[in-house]
């Protein structure tokens, strides 16, 4: 995608070769956090950026059973508490990335149809994706894992906690409302790519994008009224009624109409933003977040009036025509006009420094430090409807915290520790200490593989080569990371 | 005007509105015309980081006729100089981004705005400067970040370009990020010959069909060998051509523009800028240059740390891709690229940072700061975006430090220029006070002023 930067496109294609070895190696990492769990943790001597009630110098945070039990100047150490001395360090709430594609097995796009609401990202979560760990190491604790942007109405989406080492079933954020991806503009109309020999898919214009959304919701509304009618009659005691035929494509849209599923809409241009807000009004649903929304600054008042949140990039621009009017002041203008704004990543690498990305709105647009910090903590929490649980350092909230060695609104800050539910999931000191062992283990495995290959009789060699080649397609596809393959998945990518 | 030209293609309506609202700003797009330019500038009461010695507190910097005339603690201010009180501000040499596609690519997804990579594998005679558009909106956006000069590098990839392609990509040009014409912008027309080192690729991705493709190792190796043989052949022929050119008598050879372009390379006058990231390719490239007796600069260098001793012993400098990039391999340490600069620095390898892009060029300082966060000494990081790229490309007699006689590419900031939240307050390119205005700022001002509907 995402990685954008030259060269990696061609480099990453080799990564699969190491997949077997690394899978074993990463197992070590995957299992350790559980062992480090402790019921009571006291973080001491930290500069605490609470987000909700200012900064506490030399403060303490008490964590009990995964929740924040106390925050303040000085907290007595309870018996049996594990102490984390954060002297000279900064603690802030775990970063919430409102637009992520990590932990997805394979492509994030079911791009064959213009409405793919029947598919669900939650069904293909991959807890072994190394990007979960990398983003943890960048202070991210919660990610809104979205379907791609190939469709006017895309697949269903899921909010996860980055519980590295836990099975897929434990990744989803308990109680978080599920979402659905919408997309407007160049990506759903497939402007920037076509497959040779393949017929062009509808829609191919912004007119068609609107039409396909209206058509789908017209169907969904009829479908809903059939069910409402059926349910009404059944509860009134009518018997032997035949229920309406279930439609997996329309079910999630009915949930949208009922306010049980959030709409996260990828968009760029001012006109298409207003278009979606009009359609939503017509059908009586709310757009929860406008994603990217790079021209949001042009229609900030309208967005604010609609109640939609905006989740945008810090400073990406010019990768396609609809991103040519993108400005790094976008977040600031929208904030000033009353829009709830978050800064997102759309990219596993970008997610590792969202704290820095948020800080850019201080320079570009003059937001305050507090406003900048909110854009990667409490604002995305509100946008995802999880702000009662996360997004600030307050008593009763989940102990999802990041510890930095320096002011996090700076390019010089390095994450030292990331906690989720009061458990240390990333510890830089431990990561560095374990590198020697991981390197050793990798060496042993590589040697073993070499030896096994050498022991093969020469005449077997050829067939063995062939076998390996046959095996390669089974390698786990890389998560969206480079120009290879994943470019097709990126919202940013020209594809 | 630049913003007119680039914008009109896409959004006629908008640009009319912009002209109407901000007529005066449009004129500020380019450096002020010579008629209005003062003869000299004097930056006074500044903290000056010359990068050629200790910082000067309460210093003075005199700029005259495009050059730095004087810098120091006790410097007389000429009478005709325009005075700029820089009290509380800091002065640095402008930053130098050594790998960009500046002026060669406007919008990644729109091929008609892209001139960064020629078709075909061997294009030694194409020169970046030929296609640099002085009106590119990327230029004023980038210089606001404190970058005053860059290399425009052909065939060097960049965002959404699907990576570099071709083997000999053409010649990189050093340009100033200001100028009415491309001639104004020229710092040096040809500073390096671009080579994308071939790779043994068993897995590729076909963007036409969006399919992954596999091929057996032996086949991939054959293709690799073939490309290296071809590359060898190009330099052998260029050497013969150089010999023929060297004869004093009448030319008894057919003129060949491609071989002619390679002559400065085989004569050791023009370095190769070789793009390679994995250690195998880097090693092969070094061996190749050894054998061919060619001067090499490595670009990319994701695994340069594996060959740090070799790079140091051969004095091969590296232009590192942004640290803000994921590691190559799943089992690499998560901070592999972030900690590499510190490791290379400790090993004595010379390197500079590059953005390898246009729209992300403004992250150059941010990348350098991240390298500091992971152990690189601060002074080295600052030099790796100023002096070192200048040295690596043989331009240090002109740019890279604040010393008298050098070209006055100067930035005045309100803080550490590598820090995200710092702002550039004044910027000089070739001694001209250059506007910090750009299309993005104009859009900001325009829509900030939008009345409530």
Largest sheet of chain A: 8 strands, mixed
Q: Give start-end ranges of low-pLDDT stretches of chain B.
A: 1-34
End-to-end Cα distance of chain B, whole Å, is 31 Å
Rounded Rg of chain A: 24 Å
**Strand segment tally of chain A:** 16
Largest interface, counted with CB-CB under 8 A? A-B, 93 and 83 residues
Figure out the total of helices of chain B.
14
For this entry, what is the oligomeric state of its chains? heterodimer
Q: Helix proportion of residues of chain A, in percent?
A: 25-40%
Task: State mean pLDDT of chain B (0 to 100 scale).
Answer: 90
Q: Radius of gyration of chain B, rounded?
A: 23 Å
Range of helix content of chain B: 25-40%
Structural class of chain B: alpha/beta
Number of strands of chain B: 18
Mean pLDDT of chain A: 88
Number of helices of chain A: 13
What this model shows, in words?
The complex is a heterodimer of chains A (495) and B (453). Chain A starts with 7 loop residues before the first helix and ends in a 24-residue tail after the last helix. The longest helix of chain A has 30 residues, at 206-235. In chain A, the strands form 2 sheets. In chain A, strands 1, 2, 3, 4, 5, 14, 15 and 16 form an 8-stranded mixed β-sheet that branches. Chain A has an 8-stranded mixed β-sheet with strand order 6-7-8-9-10-11-12-13. Chain A is globular. Chain A has helices spanning 8-12, 19-35, 130-136, 206-235, 251-257, 270-283, 300-306, 330-336, 354-363, 369-374, 378-383, 428-455, 458-471; strands spanning 40-49, 55-64, 67-72, 82-85, 90-93, 95-100, 140-145, 153-161, 179-183, 262-267, 289-292, 309-312, 341-343, 401-404, 415-420, 423-427. Chain A is of the alpha/beta class. The model of chain A is unreliable at 1-36 and 461-495 (pLDDT under 50). In chain A, a hairpin with a 2-residue loop joins strand 15 and strand 16. Chain B is an alpha/beta fold. Chain B is built from 14 helices and 18 strands. Chain B has helices at 2-8, 12-21, 23-27, 138-143, 182-185, 217-246, 257-266, 279-292, 308-313, 336-346, 364-373, 378-383, 387-392, 439-448, and strands spanning 40-48, 56-64, 67-72, 81-85, 90-93, 95-100, 147-152, 168-176, 186-196, 203-206, 211-214, 272-276, 296-300, 318-320, 351-353, 410-413, 424-429, 432-433. In chain B, the strands form 3 sheets. In chain B, strands 1, 2, 3, 4, 5, 16, 17 and 18 form an 8-stranded mixed β-sheet that branches. An 8-stranded mixed β-sheet of chain B has the order 6-7-8-9-12-13-14-15. In chain B, strand 13, helix 9 and strand 14 form a beta-alpha-beta unit. In chain B, helix 1 (2-8) runs antiparallel to helix 2, helix 6 crosses helix 7 (257-266) and helix 10 (336-346) packs across helix 11. Chains A and B meet through helix 1, helix 2, helix 3, helix 7 and helix 9 of A and strand 10, helix 11 and helix 14 of B.
């Amino acid at each position: 995608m995402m990685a954008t930067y030259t060269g990696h496109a061609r480099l990453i294609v080799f990564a699969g070769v190491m997949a077997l070895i690394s899978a074993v190696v990463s197992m070590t990492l995957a299992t350790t956090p559980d062992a480090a769990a402790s019921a009571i943790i006291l973080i001491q001597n930290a500069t605490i950026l609470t987000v909700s009630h200012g900064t506490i110098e030399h403060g303490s945070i008490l964590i009990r059973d995964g929740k924040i039990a106390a925050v303040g100047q000085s907290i007595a150490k309870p018996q049996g508490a594990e102490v984390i001395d954060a002297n000279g360090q900064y603690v802030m709430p775990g970063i919430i990335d409102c637009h992520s594609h990590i932990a997805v097995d394979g492509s994030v796009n079911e791009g064959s149809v213009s409405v793919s609401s029947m598919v669900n990202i939650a069904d293909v979560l991959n807890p072994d994706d190394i990007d979960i760990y990398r983003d943890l190491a960048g202070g991210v604790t919660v990610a809104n894992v979205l379907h791609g942007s190939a469709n006017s109405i895309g697949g269903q989406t899921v909010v996860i906690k980055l519980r590295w080492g836990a099975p897929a079933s434990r990744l989803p954020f308990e109680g978080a409302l599920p979402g659905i991806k919408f997309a407007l503009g160049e990506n759903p109309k497939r402007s920037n790519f076509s497959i040779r020999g393949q017929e062009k898919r509808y829609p191919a214009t912004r007119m068609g994008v609107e039409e396909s959304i209206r058509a789908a919701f017209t169907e969904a509304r009829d479908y809903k009224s059939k069910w409402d009618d059926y349910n009404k009659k059944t509860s009134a005691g009518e018997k032997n009624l035949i229920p309406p035929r279930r439609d997996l494509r329309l079910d999630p849209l009915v949930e949208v109409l009922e306010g049980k599923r959030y709409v996260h809409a990828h968009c760029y241009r001012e006109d298409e933003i207003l278009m979606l807000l009009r359609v939503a009004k017509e059908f009586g649903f709310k757009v929860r977040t406008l994603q990217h929304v790079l021209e949001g600054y042009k229609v900030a008042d309208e967005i604010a009036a609609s109640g939609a949140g905006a989740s945008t990039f810090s400073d990406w621009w010019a990768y396609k025509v609809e991103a040519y009017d993108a400005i790094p002041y976008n977040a600031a203008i929208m904030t000033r006009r009353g829009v709830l704004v978050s800064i997102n990543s759309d990219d596993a690498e970008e997610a590792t420094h969202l704290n820095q990305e948020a800080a850019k709105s201080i320079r570009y647009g003059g937001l305050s430090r507090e406003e900048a910090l909110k854009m990667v903590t409490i604002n995305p929490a509100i946008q995802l409807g999880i702000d009662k649980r996360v997004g600030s350092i307050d008593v009763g909230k989940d102990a999802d915290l990041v510890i930095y060695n320096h002011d996090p609104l700076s390019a010089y800050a390095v994450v030292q520790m990331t906690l989720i539910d009061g458990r240390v999931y990333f510890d830089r000191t431990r990561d560095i200490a374990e590198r020697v062992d991981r390197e050793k283990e990798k060496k042993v495995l590589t040697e073993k593989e070499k030896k096994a290959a050498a022991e093969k009789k020469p005449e077997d060699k050829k067939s063995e080569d062939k076998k390996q080649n046959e095996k390669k397609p089974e390698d786990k596809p890389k998560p969206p990371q480079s120009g290879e393959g994943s470019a097709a998945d990126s919202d940013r990518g020209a594809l | 005007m630049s913003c007119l030209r680039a914008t009109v293609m896409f959004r006629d309506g908008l640009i009319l509105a912009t002209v109407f609202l901000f007529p005066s700003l449009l004129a500020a797009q380019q450096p002020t015309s010579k008629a209005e330019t003062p003869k000299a500038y004097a930056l006074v009461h500044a903290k000056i980081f010359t990068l050629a010695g200790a910082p000067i507190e309460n210093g003075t910097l005199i700029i005259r006729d495009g050059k730095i005339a004087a810098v120091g603690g006790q410097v007389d201010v000429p009478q005709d100089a325009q005075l700029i009180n820089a009290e509380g501000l800091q002065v640095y040499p402008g930053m130098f981004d050594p790998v960009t596609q500046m002026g060669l690519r406007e919008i990644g997804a729109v091929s008609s705005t892209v001139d960064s990579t020629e078709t075909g594998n061997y294009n030694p005679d194409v020169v970046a400067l030929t296609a640099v558009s002085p009106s590119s909106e990327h230029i004023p956006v980038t210089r606001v970040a404190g970058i005053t000069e860059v290399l425009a590098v052909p065939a060097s990839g960049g965002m959404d370009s699907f990576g570099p392609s071709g083997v000999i990509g053409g010649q990189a040009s050093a340009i100033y990020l200001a100028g009415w014409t491309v001639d104004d912008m020229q710092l040096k027309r040809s500073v390096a010959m671009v080579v994308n080192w071939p790779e043994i690729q068993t897995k590729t991705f076909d963007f036409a069909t969006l399919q992954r493709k596999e091929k057996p190792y032996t086949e991939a190796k054959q293709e690799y060998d073939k490309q290296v043989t071809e590359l060898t052949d190009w330099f052998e022929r260029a050497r013969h051509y150089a010999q023929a050119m060297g004869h004093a008598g009448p030319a008894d050879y057919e003129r060949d523009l491609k071989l002619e372009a390679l002559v400065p390379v085989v004569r050791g006058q023009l370095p190769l800028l070789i793009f390679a990231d994995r250690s195998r390719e880097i090693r092969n490239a070094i061996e190749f240059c050894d054998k061919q007796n060619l001067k090499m600069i490595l670009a990319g260098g994701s695994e340069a740390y594996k060959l740090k001793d070799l790079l140091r012993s051969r004095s091969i400098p590296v232009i590192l891709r942004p640290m803000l990039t994921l590691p190559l391999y799943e089992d690499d340490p998560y901070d592999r690229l972030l900690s590499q600069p510190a490791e290379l620095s400790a090993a004595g390898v010379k390197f500079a940072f590059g953005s390898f892009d246009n729209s992300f060029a403004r992250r150059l300082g941010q990348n350098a700061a991240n390298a500091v966060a992971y152990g690189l000494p601060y002074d080295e990081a600052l030099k790796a975006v100023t002096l070192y790229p200048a040295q690596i490309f043989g331009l240090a007699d002109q740019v890279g430090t604040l010393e008298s006689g050098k070209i006055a590419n100067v930035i005045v900031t309100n803080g550490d220029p590598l820090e995200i939240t710092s702002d550039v307050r004044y910027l000089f390119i070739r001694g001209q006070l250059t506007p910090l205005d750009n299309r993005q700022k104009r859009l900001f001002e325009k829509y900030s002023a939008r009345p409530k509907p």
